[in-house]
Amino acid sequence: MGTKILIVEDEQNIVDILAYNLKREGYDTLAAFDGPAGLQLALEQDPDLILLDLMLPGMDGFDVCRRVRQAGRSTPILMLTAREEEADKVLGLELGADDYITKPFSMRELLARVKANIRRVSMTPPASAPAERSEILQLGRVSIDRERAVVSKDGLPLELTQREYDLICFLAAQPGKVFSREALMEHVWNYEGYVGDVRAVDVAVRRLREKLEDDPAVPAFIKTKRGMGYFFGG
C-alpha cells in the first residue's frame, strides 16, 4: 500500500479537489467530513499524514489534534484554516500540529508541504532500532543519542515530539551558529526556499525550552540572537 493521507474537511468540493490532486501525486486518500469521524479514522487507519480543517461539525480541529496526540500518535498534522487570527494558529501548533496553511491556498504550496512532512518522517530512524555502536553527541548537560533518537538532560531522557527532536539535533550539530527562522523552516521543516509565516518556529522553540531549560524564561541551551534567530549555546 502506498502513502496514505487522511483529509478531514466538511466541504465536499475541497475534499474532492484535495483527493484528486493527492492521487495524481501517487498518494492514497481517506476522507472524513466531521471531527468524530476524522478522529476515528486517524486512530484506526494510522495514516501517514493528516490534513485537518479547524472548523468541523461534531468536534473541531483543535480537539481532533489534541486527542490524536494524547493517543501517542506522532502522525504529521497539517491544519487547514480560513481564520486569520494569530491565536488560533498558535493554539493549533501548541496542541501538536506540525504546521498550518491558510485558505485559500495554492495546491502547489500544499503539495510541497505534504511532501516535506512525509519526507521528514521517512528519514527518521525508529527509536527502537538496534545499534552496535551508539552515536552520542555530548553537549555539557545535554546528550543526543542519534541511534536511538533520544535527548537526555543530566542523564534523564526528555519526552520530545519529533519536531522538537529534529530542531534540537539541527541546532546542537552546530553550536553557537545562529539560524534565522526562515533557515530553520527550510532545514528542519524541509520547506525549500521558504518565504512566509515563521511562527511555527517560535512555537516549537518555546515548547522545546519548556522541556529542556531549567528556566524557560532565561534559556541556557536554546538561545535567541535578537533580530537574527536561534542558536544552541549549552
Name the helix and strand elements from N-terminus to C-terminus, one letter apiece: EHEHEHEHEHEEEEHHHEE
How do the strands line up in the largest sheet? 2-1-3-4-5
Quaternary organisation: single chain
Rg from Cα: 18 Å
- Which whole number gives the mean pLDDT? 88
Can you tell me the overall shape?
A: globular
Strand tally, please? 11
Uncertain ranges: 126-133
- Annotation field: number of helices: 8
List keywords for this structure.
234 residues, alpha/beta, 5-stranded parallel beta sheet, 4-stranded antiparallel beta sheet
What topology emerges from the helices and strands here?
Blueprint: E1 4-8, H1 12-24, E2 28-32, H2 35-45, E3 49-53, H3 61-70, E4 77-81, H4 86-94, E5 99-102, H5 107-122, E6 136-139, E7 142-145, E8 150-153, E9 156-157, H6 162-172, H7 181-187, H8 199-212, E10 222-225, E11 229-232
